[in-house]
Input
Amino acid sequence: MKILILNGPNLNLLGTREKTIYGSESFDQYFEELMRVFPDFTLEYFQSNVEGEIINKIHEVRFSFDGIVLNAAAYTHTSVAIRDAISAVDIPIVEVHISNVHKREAFRHTSMISASCVGVIAGFGLDSYRLGVEALSKMNQDK
Output
């Protein structure tokens, strides 16, 4: 399987940003671990703080990847454009969040993208990404 891990704004600061919420491990460190857990998968990683770049990446990989694990970060709660991009492609996309967004500020309780994704995983720390990859793998096996 070929899966893209796609992160949105401010997630490039993992490991140094709000450690009580996001932990002290950088995403690059975690991504190395993820590749060890899934040695038979092709995992690629892309992060952007720019909404249009996230949309372009979703469009770009729609024919060459089996799925996307997407943490749209703050764009989760605001971006109709990312929601439309998800709806426009024919590959499964799992929405993930490091924190349990429902235990946080009220504005984080609403996701603009959930209804266009195949599922949502939240609140398991960086392990949410592993769970997202496992969900895509299971979906692929069930085809």
In short: The longest strand covers residues 2-7. The mean pLDDT is 91.
